[in-house]
Amino acid sequence: MSRLRTIYEAADQENRREILRAAPPRPGARLLDLGCARGEWTTELGRHIGTDDLHGFELIEEFAERARARGIDATIGSLADPLPYPDGHFDVVHSNQVIEHLANTDLFLHEMRRVLAPDGYAVLSTNNVASWHNVVSLALGWQPPPMHVSDELIVGNPANVAEGQPGAYGQMHLRLFTHRAMAALAAHHGLRLEERGASGYYPLPSRPSRFMARIDGRHAAYLVHRYVAA
What DSSP line would sit under the chain, residue for residue? Predict the structure, then answer.
C-alpha cells in the first residue's frame, strides 16, 4: 500500500471516530443511515448508539442486499427524490460522505429535517473544502483532491492518490462545504448546529492529525456536525 493511500485511509478512520464521538448513545433509537452502502458502518454506528433498529437508504441494489443480510432494513432509491418515510420517523439520522455527491443539497437537508423526530439528532460528515491540503493544492495551481471536474476521470493533482483513475458517473463530488456554509444551509432547512467537530489533517498520521484537528478544525480534512431540530 502506498504512503498516500495509508494516510488517506487513516484519515477516513479518524473521521469515523469523530462521528462516533458526535453521536451520543440513544438506546433503542430508530436509526436511519442515508447512503448505507453495504451496512458495515451502519451496524457499527448502531452498536455505538445502542440500537438494532437499523434502517438504510441506498442507491445501489447490490449494496442494499448486503446491508439487509446484516439485519438493516435497507430501501432502494435516489436522494435526488423525497425520502419515502413519514415525518419525524427517526430518532437518529446519519450520513457520511454523501452530501458532496448531490446536486440538490437543499432537498437532502430538507428531507433530513423532515424525517427527524422532534427530540432526535442528525450527524452529518463531509469533505471540508477549506482544509489545508485543498488550500495548498490551489496555491500550487493543482486541483484540490475532493473537487472533481469530470465524471469519467480524476485529474489535476499529481499528489492525489486517485489521480488518473476512472471516475464513476453519479459518484463524483458536486458540492463541497466549509463548516460555516454547512451550518448556515442546515439552519435554513430547520436544523440547528449543536456540536461541530473535525477530523483528518493531511499529510499527518493519526495521532498528530487528531491533535491538529482539535486545535484547528477549520482546516481539517473532514467536517462532522451534529444537528437538532431548530
Answer: --HHHHHHHHHHHHHHHHHHHHS---TT-EEEEET-TTSHHHHHHHHHHT--EEEEEES-HHHHHHHHHTT-EEEE--TTS--SS-TT-EEEEEEES-GGG-S-HHHHHHHHHHHEEEEEEEEEEEEBTTSHHHHHHHHTTPPPTT----SSB--S-TT-TTTT-B--TTTS----B-HHHHHHHHHHTTEEEEEEEEE--TTS-HHHHHHHHHH-GGGSSEEEEEEEE-
Q: What is the pLDDT of residues 112-171, one digit of tens each?
A: 999 999 999 999 999 999 999 999 999 999 999 999 999 899 999 998 878 888 877 667
CATH class of 3-134+174-229: alpha beta
pLDDT tens profile 101-121: 999 999 999 999 999 999 999
Q: What is the domain partition of the chain in residue ranges?
A: 3-134+174-229
